[in-house]
Amino acid sequence: MSRREQLGQVLRFALVGVVNTGTFFALYLLMHAWMPYFAAYTAAFVLAMVGSFFMNTYFTYRTRPTWKKFLLFPLTNVTNYVVQSAGLYALVSWAGLDTRIAPLVAALAAIPFTFLLSRRILVPGAARDAGPEPARSGPSRL
Fold it and tell me: What does pTM read for this prediction?
């Protein structure tokens, strides 16, 4: 994959992230009006994750969604969820940040992990492409 293609993926991922964050935040605020903040956070997170799967398969990585990818995709968000949840709890409980703002602040730290893990699951061969080029012996083959 060329640097230009990689940059395109990163930019599309960022755009999907902005749309997904907006969707998550709107859902969170709607549900937070009638349920505790952490329950609203979890429900909004799950709903936004489903939307994220489809936006990332079709738009970011331009690959075909499959049931296998759909079932594996939540694994990309486990780290994201743990980092965001711990951050949310710390920001609200220890730092006294408003429960309407804390989820956005906590989300920032998880972005790089989510990109790398989602690419690995959604793009066949992405793990191989991301690693260093293996050393070759003999003449180069195209």
Answer: 0.67
